Amino acid sequence: MRMGVALGAIALRLAAWLHGHDVQPVTPADFNVAFLLVAALGLVAIADVFGLERDAGAHVSGHRRERA
């Protein structure tokens, strides 16, 4: 949870920098860019899930492995 808040804050400051205002308060346009940056990172994280084996969470969830 803390990492998400930190990432959002960094994305917001990066968006403000990209719009050319380092000192003045952030604008609504900065939030748009920050949300897009955080969403892009989420999509990259989802791509990692597709590489997992079908029963990758069986040990954690307590489910048994299905026999074929």
Can you walk through the features of this model?
The chain has 68 residues and is mostly helical. The chain has a domain at 24-49. It is built from 3 helices and no strands. The model has no long low-confidence stretch (mean pLDDT 83).
CA gyration radius, whole angstroms: 19 Å
Strand content range: under 5%
Shape: elongated
Distance between the terminal alpha carbons, to the nearest Å?
38 Å
Low-pLDDT ranges: none
Structural class designation: mainly alpha
Largest β sheet strand count, sense and barrel closure: none
- Count of DSSP E strands? 0
Return the average pLDDT rounded to an integer. 83
Relative helix content = 55-70%
Order of SSEs, N→C? HHH
How many helices in DSSP terms? 3
Oligomer: single chain
Notable characteristics:
3 helices; elongated; mainly alpha; 68 residues
How would you summarize this macromolecular structure in one to three sentences?
By secondary structure, this protein is mainly alpha-helical.
Element layout with pairings:
Layout: H1 2-18, H2 28-49, H3 58-61
